[in-house]
Structures are given as structure tokens and as C-alpha cells.
Amino acid sequence: xxxPILTADELERYSRQIxxxxxxxxxxxxxxxxxxxxxxxxGLGSPVSIYLAAAGIGRLKIVDNDKVDLSNLNRQILxxxxxxxxxxxxxxxxxxxxxxxxxxVDTIHETIDENNVFELVDDCDVIVDAMDNFSTRYLxxxxxxxxxxxxxxxxxxxxxxxxxxxxxKETACLRCVFPKAPPKETFPVIGSAPGVVGCIQVxxxxxxxxxxxxxxxxxxxxxxxxxxxxxxxxxxRNEKCEDCGKA
Length: 247
Ligand SMILES: [Zn+2]
Description:
The chain has nine helices and eight strands. By secondary structure, the protein is an alpha/beta fold. The chain has a single domain (8-234), classed as NAD(P)-binding Rossmann-like Domain (Rossmann fold, 3-Layer(aba) Sandwich), CATH 3.40.50.720. An eight-stranded mixed β-sheet has the order 3-2-1-4-5-6-7-8, with helices on both faces. Helix 4 packs parallel to helix 5 (88-99). The radius of gyration is 17 Å and the shape is globular. The protein starts with 7 loop residues before the first helix and ends in a 13-residue tail after the last strand. The chain binds zinc ion. The site of zinc ion (ZN) has 7 residues, from helix 8.
């Protein structure tokens, strides 16, 4: 367990965010008591993990089964040239702990599947989707509903991105909005797209934990980097959804 009391060093480290209206030391303590599950140590996982760490999240539980490849480096900004060939989980832990030693970092080199997903997310307060495929996203969505854990969806393609926050049994879930997975492919992506999307996911986590602002509930936010626009699509919970439906 993490000690919820903030040290003098921590109060100084977070002093600029503690000044935000409605945030305060109380908000910072809430963040310190929070465990976030980050599914994926790649393009989205990089900004998600490093900004959560910078904000003073208590514990990050990061799961990834991959090793760093040269073709990752245009977008997976926590992996550097020297890390090629290393486990992504190891590379992540080094960077995150280097930025903020107050954050407990649990990195797990594993594939998320239907057998381990429930146990993996069990001790977490929020799940951040930093995956690149829908089959794992659906597993996480189902586990989030089952365990009643908020799930912050994020996805990118080219210069585009999408974000939505789901609160189990309250809002539309991922499956309500995307009933079927798009075909698998090695999709194109510019690094700034996961940068934008990952930062919005972090804002959602912080707002949820501290209790500030309006979450992206039943609102699919679509970012188009080519036109520099954000579009909001209102979505509804599907009563017949195979994951969260009432039947
Ligand atoms: Zn649903």
C-alpha cells in the first residue's frame, strides 16, 4: 500500500497542479492512492504512462508482451534508440522511474488474454486502453464491466484519434459503440496522434480521480490532425449490447 501522506518533496513537485481550482492537496492525495492499469507499452502507453507518472499517480500497472523494434520509435516515445531489442516493459520502467521515483511501477511482460485479464485488472482503479487491436480491447471492456472499473478507450489511425470514457453499467461501453472489430492491419500512424489521444486519456483519469470537470461519458471524441479539428459524437448505451446489455 502506498502511504497517502504527501512528503515536502512531493508537495513541491506537484505544486503547480495543486493550485488548480478544486484540485488541492486532497486531489493530489487521491491521485497518490490510485492504481491505473495501462494496457500496452507502445504509442498510447508512452504518453499515458509518463504523464500519469508526472502527475504523481500512486501506482502504474503496465502490461505488454513485446520487445522494442526500430519501427516503433516514430511514436512510442518512451522507447529510445538504445532500447531496441529490450522488453518494452523494462524500457518503460526505466523511463518512468527516472522521471518520478515516487510512482510505484509494476511492469508485466505478458499477453493479455481471456484467462488472465480479470486477475490482471482486479486491483486497479482505472483501466486505460493503450492497445492497438480490438480483440484485446473487447477483453478489457468486458473485464472493466465485470469488475466495475472505469475504462478509458483510446485509438489512433494515421493523423486521427478517438477517445471515450466508459463507466460500467452507466454509460455506453466500447462494444455498444463498436459492436464489431475493424479488420486487423498494420495501420499507419504519426507519433503526434497517440500523443494527443494519450494526453486526453490522462486528463480523463485525473478528472475522474480528483472529481473535476466533465468526462467523455457517452461522448466519442474524434480528433482529426489533418484538419486540426475535434468532433464529438454522442453515443448511447445499447440495451442489447453483448457485453453490458441488461439481458
Ligand atoms: Zn455495451
